[in-house]
């Protein structure tokens, strides 16, 4: 059984993206399961020559059932052709990219149908226009996105209250839109980071925002691992109680 779990954990890790540089966009991430199999999954993909979609989700619970649900959602998001696609839709004018709230709504319709399923997930899904820097995003029961603005060298939280995904079939999801400036960064993360604990104190979203702000001079390829290392040092423990996932997207229109 232990060997089977090891194989399953390795399979899930192989689903993580390999490519990290796109036209006008650079991506980086880290993902650390707390046990042999985690319930976090992240990904990104080119939707067309102008748009890139990216996401991070966190399934409730731990272990095999959570990992299977995260795998299922990842596979659902990867379907780009035909009527079963949740990231595209067919219209009288041809195939169009779904907005972030439409994607999350479609996922909720799929995963809230089974009354026997007690699992749900939180997520962020975003669509970035690589030419203009416009980004629409939906935060569904997930910790707020952190937006690092290069010109002002400041950070802020993004995201309104939305339902989790897969629990309520009546859930209504809303999206927001921003326009990135050159070299701005968008940070997605799971609560394994912000709920890291030292004695009775949690790390918190505010601490993470400040840490990202103070990491502005690091290269993008080093930032996620540096953030995780700093949280490890703060909690005086190399191990985390929950899965850790962090994804950063940097808009680089001049490259």
Automatic annotation (TrEMBL):
Q: Which key words tag this protein in UniProt?
A: Hydrolase
Q: Does the keyword Hydrolase apply?
A: yes
UniProt cross-references to Pfam families, sorted A to Z = SpoIIE
Ranges for domain PPM-type phosphatase: 22-251
Question: What's the name of the protein?
Answer: Serine phosphatase RsbU regulator of sigma subunit
Species name: Vibrio variabilis
């Amino acid at each position: 059984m232990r060997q089977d779990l090891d194989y399953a954990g390795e399979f899930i890790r192989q689903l993580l993206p390999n490519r990290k540089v796109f036209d006008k966009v650079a991506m980086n991430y880290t993902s650390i399961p707390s046990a042999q199999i985690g319930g976090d999954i992240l990904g990104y993909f080119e939707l067309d020559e102008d748009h890139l979609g990216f996401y991070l989700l966190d399934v409730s619970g731990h272990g095999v059932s959570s990992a299977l649900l995260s795998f299922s959602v990842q596979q659902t998001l990867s379907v780009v052709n035909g009527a079963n696609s949740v990231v595209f839709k067919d219209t009288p004018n041809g195939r169009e990219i779904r907005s972030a709230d439409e994607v999350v709504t479609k996922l909720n319709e799929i995963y809230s149908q089974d009354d026997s399923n007690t699992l749900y997930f939180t997520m962020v899904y975003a669509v970035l226009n690589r030419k203009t820097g416009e980004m629409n995003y939906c935060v569904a029961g997930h910790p707020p996105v952190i937006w690092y603005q290069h010109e002002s060298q400041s950070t802020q939280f993004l995201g309104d209250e939305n339902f989790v995904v897969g629990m309520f079939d009546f859930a209504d999801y809303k999206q927001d839109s921003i326009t990135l400036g050159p070299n701005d960064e968008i940070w997605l993360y799971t609560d394994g980071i912000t709920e890291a604990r030292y004695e009775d104190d949690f790390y918190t979203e505010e601490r993470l925002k400040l840490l990202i702000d103070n990491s502005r001079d690091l290269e993008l390829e080093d930032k996620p691992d540096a953030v995780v290392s700093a949280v490890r040092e703060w909690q005086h423990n190399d191990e985390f109680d929950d899965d850790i996932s962090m994804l950063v997207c940097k808009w680089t229109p001049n490259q």
